Amino acid sequence: MRVEYINPFVESAFNVMREVLQADVRRGELFLKSTSMPVMGVAAIVGLAGDVEGRVLFDMDKNTALSIASTMNGEDLTTMDELVKATITELANMITAQAVTKLHELGFRFDLTPPAIFTGDNMEVSNQDVEALIVPMETPQGKVEINVAIRERA
Amino acid sequence: MSVQASDDRAAQGQEEKKERAEKIDFKMVTFALAGKEYGIDIMNVKEIAHAGRFTYVPNAAPFVRGVYNLRGDIISIIDLRVMFHLPAERKEDNAQESLLILQIGDHVFGVVVDSIDKVVGVARSSVQPPHPIFSDINIRYIKGVIENRDKLYIILNVEKLFAPAKEEDESRDAPIRPTQGRQAGVQEPAPAETRKPSADVNVDFVREALWTLRRFGVTPVNEPWFKARYDAWKRERSSGDIQLKDEGDADQFLSGFYSPHTGELWSDDYADRVLAALPVIQARGINVWNPGCGKGYETYSLACLLKAKYPECRVKIWANDSDLLAISMAPNMVFMIEDVPERYHEFMVEGRNGWTFQQAIRDSIFFEFHDVLNANPVPPVDMILCRDTVSFMTEAEQKRLLADFGEKAKEGAALILGARERMPLDGWNDAGKDGVSLFVKTSR
């Protein structure tokens, strides 16, 4: 993945999460991965098109999702209902959109697809031939892994 | 160290080796048992070690001290002194014992001796048959006696010595032994079964140390350099000091390995040599793949080189490295103009903080944070620049990457490896000269 793409995603993830959660958010060490990986339970996915092709996946476990949705909505949510899903989808959308805006300023043209959300147990994502950058974020609500896989359109 | 000097040394080392090899055809590791000197054929010795605190095995023969975990493999430890009813001083429980790790057939086990001396090379013809009065050890187990520098060595026949015990051992050893160590299976640069036991035990230690300390895998890619360097190293160091103890030693060992101008822009001289070695490119667009570009100095150097030589061509360089810190700096590198060799000046512009490469050069390079061991999404390329990167992988990884080079390279494409590296696979012609290690892909 091009070096120029890394920072916008890391920065916007950090900024947006800190803003919406009003809490101390910490970023873990970035790393690359290309094997299939388990999904913790809730995954929001945003597709990218334009100069590049790829996707951004936001992965967290169910409790983290509920806790984040509760904080963002200012009420206590305990079941994985429509509101929770809509909130997580919105979070994914906000982070990706801000990153794409930053990239646009740098001269890269990206388009977004509407986010989709997946929930369930024992899920796995595999696209073996695409290498993903993992940005782990530690929040008081739990761990969120942002999984960015982008490649240049050949 | 200059290239010339290391080459000379290499040549010298090889000559010396040849001379010795004519006279010496038998090497043994010598050690002491109860004050007497013994030797064991080096081909049976896997390594030497110091260890203690063996795990006691109940109900085993008295000469079995226990079992020991040697980097993931469980081996049994036999005390030779007890086996031969020689006096052995009883050490404290956690004291370190001198161990010879022997390999006989498929069996690996450790042998405790009083002290290990050195490796002695002798002529096989000068080994004398054993005589009963020589030793306290049953004559069946003695291969012969030899005199070397006023010392008399008794050469043990370890195959015979441990053969009868093998059958009983098997039942005990078999269930424990198959603990194929993770390290042995995955991490070792060259699996033990494919590697011939070296005549000099230290070679294997140095190889292993290079991998542990600096992730440098000695393989056919860099074997010629390694051999020459090892010979030079042996001469530099006193005999007891050959092994690499820490990162400092490993760096010193590798000091001559790196290609010219690692971590800086290429000098005029080196750039000209690369140009001279490169085949002429006819295509209108030149695609280059530069794995392991580090901070990007070599990428910029090559970009300027190609721009100057083929001004009409569209040059695209896919440069990648898995070191995030290094590669993050690459796209926005700033220079002091005094530090930049003359030939790059025409491709640079002055900015607020210093000089940078002009947009046209920067646009021709994609710096990517990418691990080459994952899928490589590069299009077919006319050139691959990969200096001093392949060597820092396991042998299996190296093979995979080199095979991928073959996949991605167009016919007639040039591959530039590190100055001390070779392309061991078929399908590439060596076209290197003047210290540039260059290979051209042949048609299938």
The rounded Rg of chain A comes to: 15 Å
Could you tell me the radius of gyration of chain B in angstroms?
A: 28 Å
Structural class of chain B: alpha/beta
The most extensive contact between chains is:
A-B, 18 and 16 residues
How would you name the CATH homologous superfamily of chain A?
Answer: CheC-like
- Per CATH, the architecture of chain A is 3-Layer(aba) Sandwich
Tell me the number of strands of chain B.
19
The third-level CATH topology of the largest domain in chain B is Rossmann fold
- Level-2 CATH architecture of the largest domain in chain B: 3-Layer(aba) Sandwich
What structural class results from the helix and strand content of chain A?
alpha+beta
Number of helices of chain B: 12
Main sheet of chain A? Answer: 8 strands, antiparallel
Q: How would you describe this protein?
A:
The complex is a heterodimer of chains A (154) and B (444). With 154 residues, chain A is α+β, with helices and mostly antiparallel strands. Chain A has a single domain, classed as Chemotaxis protein chec (3-Layer(aba) Sandwich). Chain A contains three helices and ten strands; from the N terminus they run αβββββααβββββ. In chain A, strands 1, 2, 4, 5, 6, 7, 9 and 10 form an eight-stranded antiparallel β-sheet that branches. A two-stranded antiparallel ribbon of chain A has the order 3-8. In chain A, strand 4 (42-50) and strand 5 (52-60) form a beta hairpin. The model of chain A has no long low-confidence stretch (mean pLDDT 88). Chain B has 444 residues and is of the alpha/beta class. Chain B has two domains: 24-180, OB fold (Dihydrolipoamide Acetyltransferase, E2P) (Beta Barrel); 268-441, Vaccinia Virus protein VP39 (Rossmann fold). In chain B, strand 1 (26-33) and strand 2 (36-41) form a beta hairpin. The radius of gyration of chain B is 28 Å and the shape is elongated.
